[in-house]
């Protein structure tokens, strides 16, 4: 097809095939992103602040002549934002008893290094609570069995992590609480019918108020397991096993 040019040519431009294929659209305007606060994660290169907040727990064990004092200090990440979080940063264990000074210092340094490494550090709780003393464990106040002093240190760290929100306990429903209270009342009523508590029996009752003669629960490690209607029932956590 021929085209007749009737006007003077004042200029020209070579049109390439790829230019014809490309659409002549207006350049897109990218939307401006709203500023987002930088989230600080826990990692081993995070420097220690001048001041830390923490908690101190007292451990009184029959295996030790003197009490242990466990101090756990936390670092606050993203302070003042919706991402604010407390995380364990270091741990100190102090006691007048110097017999176990070496392993206590080693344990505090290793635990502090694990805390500062970042990531999920809650696994350390189960590792410590699984340590058993070859001489045997003991019952702490409330009838809770501790297989070793290291296990109780693990229990202290677990309690601290619950306090700062790193570990969450499965909440017991109102129906479960009512059922446990009902079973406990029924057990105490049947026990009163059989025989009245002697002063010696009353002394064996622990501070948590569980009936004397209760055995150790395999689920919560509390001396609150009683036999009711042919079933082993825990009056602390509600665990039950029949047969």
From TrEMBL:
Q: Known InterPro entries for this protein?
A: TSCPD_dom
Biological process (GO) annotations held by this record are: DNA biosynthetic process
* Enzyme Commission number(s): 1.17.4.1
Task: Write out the entry's keywords from A to Z.
Answer: DNA synthesis, Nucleotide-binding
Q: Which reaction does it catalyse?
A: a 2'-deoxyribonucleoside 5'-diphosphate + [thioredoxin]-disulfide + H2O = a ribonucleoside 5'-diphosphate + [thioredoxin]-dithiol
The GO terms this record gives for MF are: nucleotide binding; ribonucleoside-diphosphate reductase activity, thioredoxin disulfide as acceptor
The record places domain TSCPD at: 48-161
* Recorded family membership: Belongs to the ribonucleoside diphosphate reductase class-2 family.
In Swiss-Prot or TrEMBL terms, this protein is called ribonucleoside-diphosphate reductase
The protein's organism comes out as Dyella dinghuensis
């Amino acid at each position: 097809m021929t085209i007749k040019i009737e006007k003077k040519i004042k200029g020209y431009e070579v049109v390439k095939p790829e230019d014809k294929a490309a659409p002549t659209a207006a350049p897109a305007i990218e939307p401006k992103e709203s500023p987002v606060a930088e989230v600080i994660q826990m990692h081993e290169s995070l420097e220690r602040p001048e001041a830390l907040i923490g908690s101190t727990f007292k451990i009184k064990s029959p295996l030790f002549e003197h009490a242990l004092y466990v101090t756990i200090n936390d670092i606050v990440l993203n302070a003042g934002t919706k991402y604010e979080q407390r995380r364990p940063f270091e741990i100190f264990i102090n006691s007048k008893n110097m017999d176990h000074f070496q392993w206590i210092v080693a344990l505090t340094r290793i635990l502090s290094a694990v805390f500062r490494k970042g990531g999920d550090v809650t696994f350390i709780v189960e590792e410590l609570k699984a340590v058993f003393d070859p001489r045997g464990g003991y019952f702490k106040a409330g009838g809770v069995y501790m297989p070793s002093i290291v296990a109780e240190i693990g229990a202290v760290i677990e309690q601290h992590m619950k306090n700062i929100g790193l570990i969450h306990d499965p909440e017991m429903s109102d129906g479960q609480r009512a059922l446990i209270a009902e079973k406990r009342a029924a057990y105490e009523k049947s026990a009163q019918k059989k025989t009245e508590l002697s002063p010696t029996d009353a002394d064996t009752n622990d501070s948590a108020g569980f009936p004397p003669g209760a055995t150790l629960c395999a689920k919560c490690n509390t001396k609150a397991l009683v036999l009711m209607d042919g079933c082993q029932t825990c009056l602390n956590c509600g665990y039950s096993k029949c047969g």
